[in-house]
Amino acid sequence: MIRKATKRKLGRLWGYLVLAAVACCWFVPSVGPGAIAIMSVFVVLYCLFQAPMWCCAPTRANQLCRNNANGILLGCYLRQHKFEKLRLAVKQQAWSKAAATVLTSIGGKAATLSALAGIVSACVATTTLVVK
User: Fold this and answer.
1) Each residue of 16-27: b (16+ CB within 10 Å) or e?
2) Predicted pLDDT of residue 74
3) What does the alpha-carbon distance between residue 4 and residue 67 come to, in Å, rounded to a whole number?
4) How many Å apart are CA 23 and CA 39, to the nearest integer?
């Protein structure tokens, strides 16, 4: 029987499990591109809004916040940090700064690479669905 802590950990990391399922589904011919596209969209949404990582929003002391956060676009429990990370994502001039802050932690790197893989997978699956 699975312990409660293991269930909680799997519940927080469900997006990475779906990403592994998407990777496996590409090699199973019975799974259609529509299902792969839907699972890929779930992976991207997970990475943007729920993946566990550090906040990394700039603080008043010009350092990066080390509080726990959810997703690439959301900050930690501090209201200003939530808006700061969204502001960095919206401003075109701040994209390099946003990328640098997200890629400072291993959680941010994993979420970013998973989101990119999900986007590519969704685009290829949608193209395959439209062409067929």
Assistant:
1) bebbeebeebee
2) 83
3) 24
4) 10
Burial of 35 (0-12, 13-18, 19+ CB in 10 A): middle
Q: Residue 68 in 3-state DSSP?
A: strand
Mean pLDDT (whole number) for 56-80: 85
Q: What is the pLDDT of residues 4-32, one digit of tens each?
A: 878 777 778 899 999 999 999 999 989 99
Task: Please check whether residue 98 is in contact with residue 85, taking contact to mean a CB–CB distance below 8 angstroms.
Answer: yes
Alpha-carbon torsion (24, 29, 35, 40), positive or negative = positive
The angle at the Cα of 98, spanning 117 to 18, to the nearest 5 degrees, equals: 25
The overall average pLDDT reported for the chain is 86
- Contact between 110 and 90 (Cβ < 8 Å): no
